[in-house]
Design a protein that fits this description.
- The chain is built from 26 helices and 22 strands.
- With 701 residues, the protein is α+β, with helices and mostly antiparallel strands.
- It has a five-stranded mixed β-sheet. The protein has a five-stranded antiparallel β-sheet with strand order 14-13-12-15-16, with no helix packed on it. It has a four-stranded antiparallel β-sheet with strand order 5-4-7-8.
- Helix 1 packs antiparallel against helix 2, helix 12 crosses helix 13 and helix 16 crosses helix 17.
- The longest helix is centred in the first third of the chain and has 20 residues.
- It is globular.
- The relative contact order is 0.08.
- The structure holds 2-(butylsulfanyl)adenosine.
- 2-(butylsulfanyl)adenosine binds next to strand 3 and strand 8.
Length: 701
């Protein structure tokens, strides 16, 4: 069985590599998931053969990460920057003076956050951030979730111990999705993919990092025991071992070739799916690198050429103020149309009042617009020489442009907010649009425009009103025929079956995203229990911090919100976790704290089991705790505290007896027996695909 597990891991690593590194999958997502599920099941049955580098760990976990500081074996240096072709020529001259004929490798300079990965016997051992160059943070658990980072290397011709360095990136697509989600729950969006990548790598919860869809491109091998003569050869080998190495590497033998590479990528980078901010030019031969050596901060054998941010200068005509679902005000500049990086720009973000004051942007100014790592261009400065002597400082609005309510600023927030959440039209529309969205109530046939139409014609004033709509009211509206009206009514009706956790997400409590809504639904199990919860109780739920707890509590203390929630209840939306989601009520009312590590189940599984059997999982021991579910490696202070409070301490086995069920299937023990006795030959059938797997051959041998 152990061989089987190892074999499955190898196959999954291989297909992961085909998909995430080579961009050339050989099996369907469905087949991949089936393999992964099979491995998960076997690992569950045999926890003694767990491996931190098993592909099943890529999804991360919600155990709080602590970032140990680790000293870099070799310091992580920076690069000297150049900003003109002249400076690159000077670099080339310096190099030639020292070594004569030179060969270079040109690479893109990736705009993410640097990482150093250590491998031991072909297994990922550690991932450490750059930190101050000497010491960085150990972010291994988070690095494991990055699909393009190999957890186990291909082949065998790598040194037993080495480091490889590169850049963790967030592709534009993931960046935009993440920011949309953040805006949706009232979190400030990340300014650019670099910040988003760095922030995601430092998440305390690796399951969250996994969700963020990071990517990792490697650009330098570090350590002893390599026999390569050139940097280029070392990258080719690293690519074979399974690392993602840039496809945009160029070998250049003259300044003309370097210049051509830079000019090409200065344009072509706009078509790449990730951010770059320059080109790195490296001397190719290691012997030459050695001769050139290092300054205190950077190698003498490499230099970075920084792309000039594409900039244009144009007139600021006016400023609009957009009001989001949460009431956040975003100033948007209307510009005289100008050509920038291949598109015509008419609008640009001004972020917030502080940013406007900082730049001293005024109406009628000629402003510089840049396209940086972000998609929406931003204003970065003012051409003061072109400013009219009559211009006046920009005055930020103090009332909502939509409803006239006085704006407010919350502590620690740069943005202004319109506090009139219940009557400010764009906030209402934004909330309804969120309510009907796919991950919330999933009401098909309704889009933002139709919602606006229904609102403008007075048919709905909030999302609850959707449930009062009649077919006849809809079909008379412009653009809505009989058929689409029927569809809308039908999908509104269908939404009554949406589970409680999604209803909770749909009502739009600030900071309560999809995942938090699921956690809350599983923990409290009904809207009533959630409404009754105190801030302390809310904070006691794993992954619910003070800010979220306060926001939930405030939401339910507001009478307008409560009227809305009560109306939803009357219309029949699910306000409780369904019985089918519950396995039993054997832990009804019991509060259980999990601590330590367990042989048979992950902490996540145990948490789910507690909730699915009617118990509550508490984050910390208190006088209200009924049981401490104790595993190995538990902190002695926790144990002492539990003993002092007279809390019953149980182990994994006893816990399983208490719920007397098979954890995964949710079936009573007898059924499990039946399942287990499934003839072995039948089981083997499922594994057929791997037989025709092209795994043999150079990659895995
Ligand atoms: S080589 C000894 N290559 O730029 C220097 N760095 O300013 C090793 N970077 O911290 C760095 N793309 O995060 C190198 N192709 C590339 C790069 C690259 C991005 C970043 C890296 C480093 C910073 C140096």
């Amino acid at each position: 069985m152990r061989d089987k597990i190892e074999h499955l891991r190898k196959i999954i690593h291989y297909h992961n590599y085909r998909y995430y590194v080579l961009n050339d999958p050989q099996i369907s997502d469905y087949e991949f998931d089936a393999l992964l599920r099979e491995l998960q099941e076997l690992e569950r049955q045999h926890p003694e053969w767990d491996d931190p580098n098993s592909p099943t760990h890529r999804v991360g976990s919600d155990v709080t990460n602590e970032f140990r500081t680790v000293e870099h074996r070799y310091p992580m240096l920076s690069l000297s920057n150049t900003y003109s072709m002249e400076e690159v020529k000077e670099f080339d001259n310096r190099v030639r003076k020292e070594i004569g004929e030179a060969e270079y490798v040109c690479e893109l300079k990736f705009d993410g956050t640097a990482i150093s990965l250590t491998y031991e016997n072909g297994q990922l051992l550690r991932g450490v951030t750059r930190g101050d160059g000497t010491r960085g943070d150990d972010v291994t658990a988070n690095v494991r979730t990055i699909r393009s980072v190999p957890l186990q290397l291909n082949g065998s011709d790598y040194p037993a111990f080495f480091e490889i360095r590169g850049e963790v990136l967030m592709p534009y697509e993931s960046f935009e999705r993440l920011n949309r989600e953040r805006e949706d729950i009232g979190e400030a969006p990340f300014a650019n993919p670099r910040n988003a990548a760095a922030g995601s790598l430092k998440q305390q919860n690796s399951a969250e990092t996994a969700r963020r869809e990071l990517d990792c491109t490697l650009y330098s091998l570090v350590g002893e025991g390599f026999s390569f003569e050139t940097h280029y050869d070392s990258l080719c080998a690293a690519r074979k071992w399974g690392f993602k190495i840039s496809d945009q590497i160029g070998l250049c033998r003259s300044m003309e070739e370097i210049e051509a590479y830079i000019r090409h990528w200065d344009q072509a980078r706009h078509d790449l799916p990730f951010a770059t901010d320059g080109v790195v030019i490296k001397v190719n031969r290691f012997a030459d690198q050695k001769r050139l050596g290092y300054t205190a901060k950077a190698p003498r054998w490499a230099v970075a050429y920084k792309f000039k941010a594409e900039q244009a200068c144009t007139e600021l005509l006016s400023v609009d103020f957009q009001v989001g679902r949460t009431g956040a005000i975003t100033p948007v500049a209307n510009l005289a149309p100008v050509q920038l990086a291949g598109t015509v720009v008419k609008r640009a973000s001004l972020h917030n009042a502080e940013q406007i004051a900082l730049l001293d942007v005024r109406l009628g100014d000629h402003v510089y617009v840049e396209k940086g790592g972000e998609i929406i261009p931003k204003i970065t400065g003012v051409d003061l020489s072109a400013r009219s002597s009559e211009s006046l400082p920009f005055v930020f609005i103090d009332r909502c442009p939509e409803c006239g309510t006085e704006l407010v600023k919350y502590e620690g927030e740069a943005r202004h907010y319109c506090p009139n959440s219940s009557h400010c039209p764009p906030q209402i529309i934004g909330r309804i649009v969120h309510f009907i969205s796919r991950k919330a109530m999933n009401i098909d046939g309704l889009g933002e425009e139709t919602v606006q139409l229904l609102y403008d014609s007075g048919l709905i004033a909030d999302a609850a009103d959707l449930y009062t709509l009649k077919r006849e009211q809809l079909s008379v509206l412009p653009r809505l025929g009989e058929k689409s009206s029927d569809n809308i009514i039908q999908s509104i009706r269908k939404s009554l079956e949406v589970p409680f956790s999604r209803v909770l997400f749909a009502i739009g409590i600030r900071f309560v995203g999809e995942t938090t809504a699921k956690t809350l639904a599983a923990h409290f199990r009904s809207m009533d229990a959630l409404i009754a919860a105190t801030v302390e109780e809310l904070e006691g739920v794993q992954d619910v911090g003070g800010r979220i707890a306060l926001s939930i509590s405030e939401y339910f203390r507001d009478s307008t919100n409560m009227t809305f929630v009560e109306r939803l209840r009357q219309f029949g939306l699910r306000f409780e976790i369904e019985e089918s989601e519950m396995l039993s009520s054997s832990l009804e009312g019991l509060k259980i704290v999990i601590s330590g590590t367990f042989a048979e189940h992950s902490r996540d599984e145990l948490k789910r089991l507690i909730e699915m059997h009617g118990g509550k999982n508490q984050a910390a021991i208190s006088s209200t705790t009924d049981y401490l579910l104790a595993g190995s490696n538990m902190g002695p202070s926790k144990l002492a505290k539990a003993k002092k409070l007279g809390i019953r301490i149980i182990g994994e086995e006893e816990f399983m007896r208490m719920i007397a069920m098979d954890s995964e299937s949710g079936q009573p023990e007898e059924n499990l027996q039946e399942k287990k006795s499934e003839p072995d030959n039948l089981k083997e059938e499922k594994h057929r695909p791997e037989e025709n797997n092209p795994i043999q051959g150079s990659l895995f041998e």
